[in-house]
Amino acid sequence: MEPTPEQSPHHAYPDHWEADVVLRDGGTARIRPITTDDAERLVSFYEQVSDESKYYRFFAPYPRLSARDVHRFTHHDYVDRVGLAVTIGGEFIATVRYDRIDGQGRPASAPADEAEVAFLVQDAHQGRGVASALLEHIAAVARERGIRRFAAEVLPANNKMIKVFRDAGFTQQRSFEDGSVHLTLDLEPTAESLAVQRAREQRAEARSVQRLLAPGSVAVIGVGRAPGGVGRSVLRNLLGSGFTGRAYAVNTSFDAGTGTVEGVPAHRSVSEIGEQVDLAVVAVPADRVPAVVADCGESGVQGLVVLSAGYAERGAEGRERQRELVRQARSYGMRIIGPNAFGIINTAPEVRLNASLAPESPKAGRIGLFTQSGAIGIAVLAGLHRRSAGLSAFISAGNRADVSGNDFLQYWHEDPGTDVALLYLESLGNPRKFTRLARRTAAVKPVVVVKGARHSGTNPPGHAVPVSRIPDATVSALMRQAGVIRVDTVTEMVDVGVLLAGQPLPDGPRVAILGNSESLGLLTYDACLAEGMRPRPPRDLTTVASPQDFRNALAEALADRTCDAVIVTAIPWVGEDGEAETGDGEVLAAALREAAATGPAKPVAVVHVEMGGLAQALAAATSTAAPPAHLPSGPGPQAPSAAPGAPGGSAARILAPASDGRTGAPGDPAPSTTRAPGHPAASPGRALAAEGAPSPGRAPVSEAAPSPGRPAPDAGRIPAYPAAERAVRALAEAVKYAQWRRQAATPGKVPEFLDDTIDEHGTAALIGRLLGPDPDPRGRPLTHDEACELLAGYGIAVRPALPAPDPEAAVAAAGQLGYPVALKTTAPHLRHRADLGGVRLDLAGENALRRAYDELTDLLGTPAELRPVVQAMAPRGVDTVVRASIDAAAGAVLSFGLAGAPSELLGDTAHRLVPATDRDAAELIRSIKAAPVLFGWRGSAPADTAALEELLLRVSRLVDDHPEVVSAALEPVVVATHGLTVLGASVRLAPPPARSDLGPRRLPSY
User: Fold this and answer.
1) Is there a contact between 29 and 23 (Cβ–Cβ < 8 Å)?
2) Phi, psi for 436 (deg, rounded to 5)
3) What are the two backbone dihedrals, phi and then psi, of residue 292, each rounded to the nearest 5 degrees?
4) CA torsion sign, 235 to 238 to 242 to 245?
5) How far out from the chain centre does Cα 452 lie?
6) Is the dihedral of CA 387, 391, 396, 401 positive or negative?
7) Which of 229, 569, 748, 809 sits at 20 to 30 Å (Cα–Cα) from 399?
8) For the whole model, what pTM was predicted?
């Protein structure tokens, strides 16, 4: 909205205060500044407020607003007097205002930093979290205008308002004066206020998703009068899924006498239905969607699934049409999946919703799937169907103009029906929020992500979100830090998902391998080593092994305290006539399931070659019957008795590849049986012995049992893979995730001792002077001396380098610093390029220095071109590089690698989000491939990694405390046996980018 002439031109309408928010019940509302155009809206709003609420607001009966009141409440300068309104459908449902006051409570202007605040919420909307959201936004506005405290007078009987202030998390003081409660709130955000804000955000956004996935009634808009077409297909799919709610067909072209279509009531508009409609599936051309949205909004529809295309994927005009669609839907309090969506599915037996173009609903299960691509969604659904893996929910969001993967992470975090979250993402609208939500969700259940469009540098058509410029390798590292299982393909996503949904987490990387193929066992062994696992030598059961032999061998491996997981390999049996026989897969599957059900809880995976029957049998549901108590001796021809002396009476021999010391040994500590949260407390098929009694060795694998009415059909299924590499890669991801979970249980800390050596306020003052009162938005690089001064404020000393524009200056500099010295060029094209000859080291005297100077200038150019400097030699060590940079979308990132080719040519660099903890710093150093160089590689002396970790923490603290430091690079950092030396540093300052993750709750607007 625009300002009117009555408002001061230097206090223009602050449109950046406008925001869409999700309320406690999952509906949306808009918060915006009140303007002089709102007089009628304000009067209408006040007329709908109860006398009791008016009394609480004005401390006296106040039946109507006077003209003076209306003028006062609609005329603001947006500095000392500010009013905000919450609107739905363009009408006010709540207001808040503040007036700046002085120490005596009288109207004032800056520099007074206190304001009186008052709220009024329409009675019909109380209890929806409206006042809490308003308090967050008016507090942010006040801080922007230099106000540090709010004062409020509340009647003692107004418990709701007192609770709003009390629960906000701000530092506050309360007193009782003159018959009212006097509250003073310090508006500086606290850890508690931020936690409260994020908890409310999680509950609200999760509830908004729940309203979409579990509607009581669905209207499909755009159902054709004749069979065929998108709308008719969606309606048929909805009915075919056994939807438990009410369904309606809507089309403006229906004849007045059209009674039903596909057996459900048919109407020409949603408003004609005359009953509550919770969800509308929109399948009409894009130019007709606005009228449909208005009809739905006026009829109280809670959410939309927009299948219609013709939006941001069609260019600039489509992007504007998409923005208007979102604005219109949110104005009515509705959320949108889409546009250009494939649809949503919820397999919960109490819902059974298939509001999508998928002709068949997937089996019920405990995997949640979110995709931004309909085609990829179809592929993943097909892959899961082939593996007989079930889903709890499926969402294909298309252009995801509103509801995104972040919203579903909020929902799945607490959804008892989902154990594993799978996401295919092509863009990250809010990477900071994604990593925060993913870290929280990954702490209780696995999050598996495939990222499309990794290397294009642009977003796919239709995704109107900010583009992050950070490299894909950095994105991957940051996801790993957040506990996300990042895989490269949708096939890998399915492989990992079915393993995590059906098996417990491994306690470590020790893997037992057994099967009836020596070659397949060795391939599996090699794959384990390639993935960083610790495989034991494969156990060959020979080609004559029976299902009973497999059962005995698997039971023995599971009982072995020196193994954390088991991979079973199987090939078809060879009959007496020499023909390969696949045998009865059910029999072998039953044998493996029985062994897994009665042994300790460890993950089991099967690698098979041309044994489709085995894979199908393993994937079959195991919750309806206990494994057979007796197994026949073999699926093919009668197998001979076990080889003499074989363990457990089974035919077996141990293959012995060269030992690398990683196979485990007797006496290793007993595993702690890490579980995958979300698995059911009594996993069918994993907790039943052959007789059907609970097995003492198969403990519950969840902190929470599944929800009533929601079975756990995936638990206990043994996943089967047609290639060893796929099984091992899935298991390796489970191992790394389990390790992250164990570490996340005791998170690292930012060391307190750093505070004594850090001058935060002095550095802030220095940054203010360097940027100046009117800084260039593009920022500015610091000179060498400026960078050194800035870093010194955080205890980071840079070895001095003196300019040497001629040989005499070089000699003088060396005399000042003391020999031996280094002579280096600092020209941009030669900086840090020792391979080009721009560096001369260990110059012990004047003659050596002069010779080196002449060599450099003769070889590389004039002193003016080379910009040579002289620097005292540092103790020998390992050359490393430490960097920090701020990406507007992802936030501050700390990076580490070895200087030169390892990081620049090979990309061997590790990354962590800022602020980094002591554990992050330690992992950062150890996670690069060249890390052994720092730890005594080939007999060299180990470097002082403790000093390096401290340096990383200091740089992290610097960029976290001062977001104006948009980039900092220390190169090289020479890490010696004792201590380290920073030889070069570059720093760039700029006005800090906006931090949307720290402000009040708001939905993104692209």
Assistant:
1) yes
2) -65, -45
3) -65, -45
4) negative
5) 15
6) negative
7) 229
8) 0.83
